[in-house]
Amino acid sequence: MSLFSKNTALNAVCEQHLAEICRQEELAPQDVRAALEAGSMVLLGNPSHAGLKPILVGQPSRVKVNANIGTSPMRNNLAAEIEKLAAALTAGADTVMDLSIAGDLASIRKGMLAACPLPLGTVPLYGVAQRHIDAGKDPAGIDPEEVFEEIERQAEQGVDFMTVHCGLTERGASWADEPGSRQMGIVSRGGSILARWMRVNKKENPLLTGYDRILDIARKHNVTLSLGDGLRPGAGADAGDAAQWDEVIMLGRLARRGLEAGVQCMVEGPGHVPMHQVEAQIRGIKAACGGAPLYVLGPLVIDSCPGYDHIAGAIGGAIAVRAGVDFLCYLTPAEHVTLPELDDVRAGVMASRIAAQAGELTLGRPLALRRERAMSEARKKLDWPAMQQAALDPAMLCARRGEHANEEVCAMCGDKRLIEHCANIKISSTCLALKYVQNKA
Predict the structure, then answer these.
(1) Hey, which of 37, 277, 356, 402 has its CA 20 to 30 A from 29?
(2) Residue 404's pLDDT is what?
């Protein structure tokens, strides 16, 4: 049986939206369907998410960018998070993840779904663990039934994709946690919760042993499973260790099981990876996971730039896209320091979009090539409206021109008379105009 015959919810989403998606992505419907069947592409779209515009994740569709938002015990203001959601979408995010852990989580999620016309993701384990913490209980006492019930509740609400840390094993957790094995230990929140649960209860990961139940829920609602990297490296020194690869190998097996069961799966990838290791990591994960779409946080190529982690992540992200990554989770300037504000959200989305553009340009993707060509032609003609249209962030271009907005040339390029003089001797670029002055001097 095909994926579409097993997953009737996915088939319904395709029937309604695939033609428009293919038009936007400049892909043939038959090629998209073949990629979905092969598991190298996923279509994010829960039919219960009202007003949704589903999206494709998986190359050669456009590389997508996700923004994380959500309440916390330190700052629990739904209105502020809705503002961040709007800022992320305005900046060009393709998806949003609600990682809320404070307040009425079901109501918060409902509000997020209503405000988000693009796919919304969650981590169901977070809410379950937080209920225990709020009640003064140890999350190691979680009954696995609570997690399965939470997954089903969120799927019924309309959540489009969920991070589930099914690939974390007792063995992998013990390798990451043993003294001297890792500089940073286990940094994933979900990974830490499950590692402690396994250690205290002396049992295997319930999300792994109960994976078939998760598949049944996901298939019913066309929830894409984002198979979480609970043992991702939290420091460059930990990248590529045995614990990380133990989980990667299991994630590949689970992605294949999901596809066989009619469930769409993507795989989450590393966090902190030194620049010279990024390509090998990405190619290795893609190979181990059978080409399933890969969703990465960064990767951050250095650990020592708090306040600028979005830049470290964009460097790693660009290399990762060139190596085969399909989906970038943003990092903001607030990463590792505090909760993001509106400006942080915008900066994080733009940094990841720049990484995606840089990576796709090296792959020769037509949309990326056209944008670059359009910007170059507009600059040559000093056509500011065309430059604005070609820019990744048109609003930033206008804002930075500021007091010179009514001038034909930019403040850096200088006097229009000089440019006109250079044009008369067939030097068309403003940069060449400056070179002409230097040569004459």
Answers:
(1) 356
(2) 77
Instruction: Choose among 270, 271, 302, 274: nearest CA to 284.
Output: 270
Q: Are residues 100 and 122 in the same domain?
A: yes
Return the SS3 of 323.
helix
d(C-alpha 389, C-alpha 408), whole Å: 16
| Last residue within a domain, chosen from 336, 364, 392 | 364
Among the listed residues 172, 176, 196, the one whose alpha carbon sits nearest the alpha carbon of residue 185: 176
Q: Is 41 left (phi over 0), alpha (psi -120 to 50) or beta?
A: beta
Name the average pLDDT for the chain.
93
Q: Are residues 117 and 87 in the same domain?
A: yes
Phi, psi of 81 (to 5 degrees): -70, -35
How far apart (Å, rounded) are the C-alpha atoms in residues 96 and 152? 20
Structural domain count of the chain = 2
Could you give the CA distance from residue 205 to residue 194 in angstroms, rounded to a whole number?
7
CB 58 within 8 A of CB 86: no
Domain that holds residue 199: 3-364
pLDDT at residue 431 greater than cutoff 60 = no
CA 350 to chain CA centroid, Å, is 12
Is the same domain home to 382 and 287? no
Residue 399, Cβ density class (10 Å: 0-12 exposed, 13-18 middle, ≥19 buried): exposed
**CATH number of 84's domain:** 3.20.20.540
The verdict on 378 and 318 lying in the same domain is no
Both 371 and 346 in one domain: the answer is no
Asked if residues 66 and 97 have their Cβ atoms less than 8 Å apart, the reply is yes
239-275: burial string, b at 16+ Cβ within 10 Å, e else: bbbebbbbbbbbbbebbeebbebbbbbbbbbbbbbbe
Residue spans of alpha helices (H) in 39-184: 78-91, 105-115, 124-134, 144-157, 170-177
pLDDT, position 415: 59
Q: pLDDT class for 432, splitting at 50, 70, 90?
A: very low
Q: Which residues, 6 or more positions from 318, have their beta carbon under 8 angstroms from its beta carbon?
A: 354, 355, 356, 358, 359
Where would I find the H helices in 391-429?
394-401, 416-424
Stretch 259-275: mean pLDDT: 97
Does the model's pTM come out above 0.85?
A: yes
